[in-house]
C-alpha cells in the first residue's frame, strides 16, 4: 500500500514521490487572489534552458511579480478577515498569530542625564572630530567639466523613490518629479553651476540623523549599541546619482 506523498520503489528500484495536493487554505488563497497570471510561471523548463528573447524574459518576470503580489494581498485579506471575525473561542489563537509590536530602544547612556547630552554623546561617537577645511578663494569654472544634460537629470529623478524620507529641507522626491515634468530647466539650472565650478556648498551637507538600536544587544547603555541613518537633502542625492552614473561609466 502506498500512501500519497510517500516514497516507493518501482520496477527499476528508483524512488519517486507521489504528487501532493495543495493545502485547502493555500488553495483558497490562490483561488481568491485577483488578477492572477496564468499558471505557466510554475511550469519549469528543462535544465539549462533559457528564455530566447528579452521580451519573453520581461513577460515572465512581470507574471512572477504579479503573482506573488496578488498572493501577498490575498494573504493580508485573509488575515484581516480572520481577525475581524475573531471570537472568544479563538482569541488565544489570534494572540499567537499576531506578532507583538517591538518597542524601540531609547539610548540610556550613563554619563548623559538629558536629551541634549545624549545627542552630543551620539554625535561624538558617530562623527569623529575633523580639522576645519581651508577657506576657498575665488571659484573658477572648470573648462573640462562635462555639462549636465536634461536626460541625466530625467534619469536620476526617475530612479528616485517618492516614499524616501526627505532631508532637513523637507522636500521629497515627489516635488522634484513633478517639477521636472512641468519645467525641466529649473533643476538643470540649479545643479549645472555646481558641476561647472566643481563646488559642493556646505548648505547641502546638512542632514537629519535617525538613531536606531541594533537588535540582540545585551545592553543599550553605550552608543555602540545603536546605528544612525542620515537623511540628506533630496536635491543633493539627485546630483550624487548623476555623478555615480558618470563615474561608473569610466570605471
Structural class: mainly alpha
* Strand line-up of the largest beta sheet: 1-2
Fraction in beta strands: 5-15%
Helix/strand order, N-terminal first: EEHHHHHHHEEH
Mean pLDDT, nearest integer? 78
The helix tally amounts to 8
| Total tally of structural domains | 2
Helix content: 40-55%
Q: Tell me the overall shape.
A: flat
Distance between the first and last residues' Cα: 65 Å
How many strands appear in the DSSP assignment?
4
**Main sheet specs:** 2 strands, antiparallel
Pick out the low-confidence regions: 1-20, 34-48
**Computed CA radius of gyration, to the nearest angstrom:** 28 Å
Key attributes of the depicted protein:
43% helix; 251 residues; 2 domains; disordered N terminus
List the topology elements.
Blueprint (H helix, E strand, L loop, with lengths): L6 E3 L5 E3 L6 H9 L21 H31 L6 H7 L17 H12 L23 H9 L14 H10 L2 H13 L9 E7 L12 E7 L1 H17 L1
Antiparallel strand pairs: 1-2, 3-4
Short characterization:
With 251 residues, the protein is mostly helical. Helix content is 43%, strand content 8%.
Amino acid at each position: 500500500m502506498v500512501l500519497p506523498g510517500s516514497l516507493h520503489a518501482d520496477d527499476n528500484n528508483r524512488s519517486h514521490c507521489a504528487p501532493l495536493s495543495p493545502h485547502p487554505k493555500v488553495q483558497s488563497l490562490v483561488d481568491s487572489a485577483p488578477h492572477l497570471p496564468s499558471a505557466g510561471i510554475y511550469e519549469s523548463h528543462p535544465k539549462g534552458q533559457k528564455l530566447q528573447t528579452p521580451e519573453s524574459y520581461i513577460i515572465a518576470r512581470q507574471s512572477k511579480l504579479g503573482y506573488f503580489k496578488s498572493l501577498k494581498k490575498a494573504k493580508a485579506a485573509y488575515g484581516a478577515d480572520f481577525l475581524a471575525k475573531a471570537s472568544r473561542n479563538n482569541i488565544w489563537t489570534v494572540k499567537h498569530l499576531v506578532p507583538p509590536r517591538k518597542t524601540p530602544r531609547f539610548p540610556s547612556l550613563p554619563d548623559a542625564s538629558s536629551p541634549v547630552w545624549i545627542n552630543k554623546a551620539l554625535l561624538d561617537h558617530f562623527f569623529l572630530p575633523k580639522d576645519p577645511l581651508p577657506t576657498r578663494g575665488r571659484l573658477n569654472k572648470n573648462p573640462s567639466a562635462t555639462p549636465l544634460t536634461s536626460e541625466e537629470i530625467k534619469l536620476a529623478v526617475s530612479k528616485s523613490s517618492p516614499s524616501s524620507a526627505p532631508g532637513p529641507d523637507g522636500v521629497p522626491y515627489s516635488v522634484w518629479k513633478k517639477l521636472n515634468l512641468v519645467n525641466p530647466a529649473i533643476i538643470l539650472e540649479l545643479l549645472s553651476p555646481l558641476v561647472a565650478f566643481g563646488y559642493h556648498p556646505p548648505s547641502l551637507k546638512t542632514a537629519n540623523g535617525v538613531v536606531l538600536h541594533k537588535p540582540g544587544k545585551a545592553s543599550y547603555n553605550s552608543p555602540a549599541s545603536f546605528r544612525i541613518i542620515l537623511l540628506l537633502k533630496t536635491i543633493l542625492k539627485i546630483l550624487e546619482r548623476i555623478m555615480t552614473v558618470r563615474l561608473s561609466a569610466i570605471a
